[in-house]
């Protein structure tokens, strides 16, 4: 890159780094506060708590019935991951390989749920799901979460599929592979990294998806993030440390999967989906 | 050698057409290929040669006509049911499979027992001389090695027909010559029938038993290399076969095999290649290597030299005639740009085409 | 000699237009999106014109005559627009700084954390961190910058800060991904032709980047405009940060008036869409070709 060494340029660079440094400092401060608080016996008006304990974790586990919440969360998340892969990957394959009339319209159909924020389409969606008797239970939550994840898988997979030379598929056919064998021996192995990346991103996004789950979940179908919201909303009923312990459990769950996902994808992919 | 091509008597393309808009169009392509022949489909890009090959392979549907293997109609069959071997332009090797797995893929799809797959793959590896590379992935091989894998993969299934789609176009010049010889050697060893698509006339001339020249989705001429090289039937085929100088004139006289064309006051004698009407427009086609400067005042094409380039033994010259026609020729000496030159060729090396061409 | 097919079968004609068995793989996804995205939208639209009481437009009349309801639009815009502009202004120079960095991945990984954690956790964290006894106020007090703790919770600023914390990384990563699509050789070419850093930015990079920035602006704005949990948890949901999504939520789940809730959701969608359409229309005037060199 073209290097600039004038004083004004250096000051400008310094200002940039100062902003990013300040941002990251506060971000970590915020996270550290939650973690510290979750291990604190009493923490009032001092830099650090009076003493340390792990009892909030066991109390949070019981108070918030975290075992149930976690098992519901993972059932929902894995159902969403599985179904969005099942519906999304074949659709992405068709869209990557075929040009048909109305394709632009179909692409728009899949782009919209990603552009429109969940709370906007979530309210009419929740209304429909309640009328259909699906909201308030796990199936409704799964269906609602699939609305953005199916298009997400499609848009992430299309460029991935496009980069596989169609000649390779033609070769497999010429050498005797029928559609099923083509899929098992050629497409699946070649697409595996892309599918893995897309589904991991879906997984991370679904764990953290608050709005759609919040709007459609009943008492027995709350995910961790919704349970956390209710706990914070009703703060004062329970000890702050207990809520923080739950927040740490949520953070660990999410960040663990994020770390796994980041082994396969670039961080920018989490926000920037397919390039248009 | 136990790899042998499955046998049939003849493959017949019967008025094959593909008619969707203008792209990839094909019009009434008919051709009969005998068992064991090496056929080259030759033509400029967009002439329909690759489309023809893909229709034979079953990768593209034809919209008319049929393909017959002896008396069995095969064009309704899906590509995986035809049992042909194919070498693709970019090889299309399966990037996630080792060399062995790539070569054995076709056999595996046919449900061949494991032990036999191993034996036949090992033979094919020997045939294309890839011993010691068999556990590598395609990405770890050089272009020439990938090419060999692609060929081995196509022949190991002992196909009745091997299809090759510009297999050498991605190799450098030296490797291309080497692989050309290799392809011919393998064809001879197997006694296979090969259809080879190329836009390189030199490649077609050196490899093929018969060449099919295509243009605009149609077959223009079918013939043995020697005929195509020296006696193209049409002006456009001649141009494509290296008769790069195309000069317009008027047919002065026609007598049997010979015709005289008046150009810029000179009467040039050549061989008539089609029906030429006396007094009608006609074209001369001459290879640059047959066109040489002659003494000023002799019968020939008058032109002004633009430049000359040294080519080792001789000079390649470029000149322009008064009517703007560009000529290329060979000369023993360097010529000064701007100087006047008269160019002539042996009458036997001059082809004359009437307006019908 | 042969039985050449004279007419082209329908299946082949369809295949030539890209419609064959393979294309059908897209059908489940289309049906799914139609059933759970398009249908609910029209259902909501229909519902909003069938109010519990009054004529077809009663919901909308009520919304626009009650300042407690129509005021939410201004409240939300007053949060969303400054946040979007601020994060974009921060993101552009920093993205320029970062794009040539070797260890870019570490920074992008750190920044993706707040997005991944989501608004609820950020709200919970900020409740502790920004409180009167929290580390933020303590640090400012210790440095002597303030004499009494700043009130940053349960008001406008709390929501604003939480939006910046989740919004900035989003905007930044999006900007960075667009910026990395610009060929660095173009800037070097500009430098060899005598353009200084500011001129290079203004005449070469900015024009190539603007379409991407327009999209970034839209996405960031739409995110900020739909602020919900942090407005409840960190703001004053009954007053200064009563954003439009709170109004919609209350109508649906506290008053059980789905018709009114749908009307609010439609209004929310219309406001978002009109800003997005305005920005994209302006984008239509910009250069949108490849941002690489001549090749390709």
TrEMBL record, chain A:
Record's keyword annotation contains Cell membrane: yes
UniProt GO cellular component terms: plasma membrane
Segments traversing the membrane: 12-35, 72-96, 108-130, 142-161, 182-204, 224-240, 247-265
CDD domains associated with the record: TM_PBP2
Alphabetical keyword list: Cell inner membrane, Cell membrane, Membrane, Transmembrane, Transmembrane helix, Transport
Superkingdom of the source species: Bacteria
Keyword Transmembrane: yes
Location within or outside the cell: Cell inner membrane; Cell membrane
A Gene Ontology BP annotation from the UniProt entry: transmembrane transport
Topology within the bilayer: Multi-pass membrane protein
Residue ranges constituting the ABC transmembrane type-1 domain according to the UniProt record: 70-261
SUPFAM superfamilies, A to Z: MetI-like (SSF161098)
Family (UniProt): Belongs to the binding-protein-dependent transport system permease family.
Name of the protein in its database record: ABC transporter permease
Native organism: Bosea vaviloviae
UniProtKB/TrEMBL annotation, chain C:
GO annotation terms (biological process): transmembrane transport
Transmembrane intervals: 21-42, 68-94, 106-127, 156-179, 204-225, 263-286
Localization of this protein: Cell membrane
InterPro entries cross-referenced by the UniProt entry: MetI-like, MetI-like_sf
Family (UniProt): Belongs to the binding-protein-dependent transport system permease family. CysTW subfamily.
Organism: Bosea vaviloviae
Membrane topology annotation: Multi-pass membrane protein
Domain ABC transmembrane type-1 stretches: 73-279
Cell membrane in keyword set: yes
Name recorded for this polypeptide: ABC transporter permease
């Amino acid at each position: 890159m073209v290097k600039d060494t004038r004083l004004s340029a250096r000051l400008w660079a310094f200002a940039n780094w100062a902003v990013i440094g300040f941002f990251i400092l506060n971000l970590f401060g915020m996270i550290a506060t939650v973690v510290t608080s979750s291990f604190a016996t009493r923490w009032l008006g001092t830099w650090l708590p009076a003493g340390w304990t792990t009892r909030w974790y066991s109390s949070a586990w019981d108070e918030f019935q975290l075992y149930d919440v976690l098992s519901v969360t993972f059932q929902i998340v894995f159902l969403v991951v599985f179904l969005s892969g099942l519906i999304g990957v074949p659709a992405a394959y068709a869209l990557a390989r075929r040009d048909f009339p109305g394709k632009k319209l179909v692409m728009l159909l899949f782009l919209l749920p990603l552009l429109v924020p969940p709370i906007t389409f979530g309210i009419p969606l929740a209304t429909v799901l309640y009328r259909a008797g699906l909201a308030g239970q796990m199936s409704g939550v799964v269906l609602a979460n699939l609305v953005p994840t199916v298009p997400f898988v499609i848009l992430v997979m299309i460029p991935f599929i496009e980069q596989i030379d169609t000649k390779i598929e033609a070769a497999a056919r010429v050498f005797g592979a029928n559609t099923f064998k083509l899929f098992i021996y050629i497409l699946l192995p070649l697409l595996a990294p892309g599918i893995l990346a897309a589904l991991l991103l879906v997984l991370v996004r679904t764990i953290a998806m608050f709005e759609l789950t919040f709007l459609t979940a009943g008492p027995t179908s709350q995910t961790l993030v919704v349970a956390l919201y209710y706990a914070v909303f009703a703060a004062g009923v329970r000890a702050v440390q207990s809520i923080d312990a739950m927040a740490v459990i949520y953070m660990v769950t999410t960040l663990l999967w994020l770390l796994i996902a980041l082994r396969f994808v670039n961080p920018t992919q989490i926000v920037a989906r397919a390039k248009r | 050698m136990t790899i042998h091509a499955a046998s049939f008597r003849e493959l017949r393309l019967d008025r094959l057409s593909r008619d969707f808009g203008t792209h990839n169009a094909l019009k009434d392509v008919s051709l009969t290929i005998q068992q064991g022949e090496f056929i080259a489909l030759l033509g400029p890009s967009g002439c329909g040669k690759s489309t023809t090959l893909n229709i034979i392979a079953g990768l593209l549907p034809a919209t008319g006509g049929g393909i017959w293997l002896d008396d069995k109609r095969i064009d309704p069959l899906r590509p995986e049911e035809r049992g042909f071997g194919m070498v693709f332009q970019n090889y299309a090797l399966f990037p996630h499979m080792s060399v062995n797995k790539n070569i054995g893929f076709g056999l595996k799809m046919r449900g061949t027992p494991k032990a036999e797959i191993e034996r036949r793959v090992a033979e094919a590896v020997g045939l294309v001389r890839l011993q010691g590379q068999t556990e590598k992935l395609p990405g770890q091989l050089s272009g020439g090695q990938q090419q060999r894998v692609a060929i081995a993969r196509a022949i190991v299934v002992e196909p009745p027909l091997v299809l090759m789609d510009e297999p050498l176009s991605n190799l450098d010049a030296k490797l291309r010559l080497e692989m050309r010889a290799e392809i011919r050697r393998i064809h001879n060893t197997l006694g296979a029938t090969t259809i080879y698509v190329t836009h390189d006339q030199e490649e077609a001339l050196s490899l093929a038993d018969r060449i099919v020249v295509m243009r605009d989705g149609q077959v223009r001429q079918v013939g043995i290399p020697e005929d195509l090289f020296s006696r193209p039937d049409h002006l456009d085929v001649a141009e494509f076969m290296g008769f790069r100088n195309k000069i317009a004139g008027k047919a002065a006289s026609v007598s049997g095999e010979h015709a005289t064309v008046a150009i810029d006051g000179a009467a040039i004698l050549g061989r008539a290649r089609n029906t030429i009407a006396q007094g009608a427009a006609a074209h001369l086609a001459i290879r640059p290597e047959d066109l040489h400067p002659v003494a000023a005042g002799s019968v020939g094409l008058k032109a002004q030299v633009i430049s000359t380039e040294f080519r080792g033994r001789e000079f390649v010259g470029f000149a322009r005639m008064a009517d703007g026609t560009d000529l290329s020729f060979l000369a023993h000496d360097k010529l000064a740009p701007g100087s006047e030159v008269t160019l002539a060729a042996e009458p036997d090396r001059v082809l004359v085409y009437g307006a019908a061409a | 000699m042969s039985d050449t097919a004279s007419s082209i079968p329908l299946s082949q004609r369809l295949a030539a237009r890209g419609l064959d068995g393979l294309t059908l793989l897209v059908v489940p996804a289309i049906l799914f999106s139609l059933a759970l995205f398009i249908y609910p939208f029209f259902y909501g639209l229909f519902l909003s014109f069938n109010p519990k009481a009054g004529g077809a437009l009663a919901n909308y009349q009520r919304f626009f005559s009650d300042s407690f309801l129509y005021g939410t639009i201004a409240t939300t815009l007053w949060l969303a627009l400054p946040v979007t502009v601020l994060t974009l202004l921060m993101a552009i120079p920093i993205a320029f700084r970062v794009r040539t960095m070797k260890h870019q991945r570490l920074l992008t990984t750190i920044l993706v954390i707040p997005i991944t954690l989501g608004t609820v956790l950020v709200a919970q964290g900020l409740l502790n961190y920004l409180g009167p006894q929290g580390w933020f106020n303590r640090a400012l007090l210790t440095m002597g910058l303030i004499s009494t703790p700043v009130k940053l919770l349960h008001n406008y600023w709390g929501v604003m800060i939480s939006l910046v914390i989740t919004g900035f990384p989003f905007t930044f990563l999006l900007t960075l991904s667009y910026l990395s699509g610009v060929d660095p050789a173009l800037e070097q070419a500009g430098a060899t032709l005598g353009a200084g850093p500011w001129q290079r930015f203004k005449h070469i990079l900015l024009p190539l980047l603007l379409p991407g920035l327009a999209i970034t602006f839209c996405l960031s704005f739409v995110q900020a405009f739909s602020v919900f949990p942090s407005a409840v948890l960190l703001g004053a949901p009954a007053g200064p940060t009563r954003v439009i999504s709170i109004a919609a939520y209350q109508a649906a789940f506290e008053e059980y008036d789905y018709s009114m809730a749908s009307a609010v959701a439609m209004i929310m969608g219309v406001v978002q869409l009109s800003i997005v359409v305005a920005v994209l229309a302006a984008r239509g005037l910009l250069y949108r070709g490849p941002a690489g060199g001549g090749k390709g």
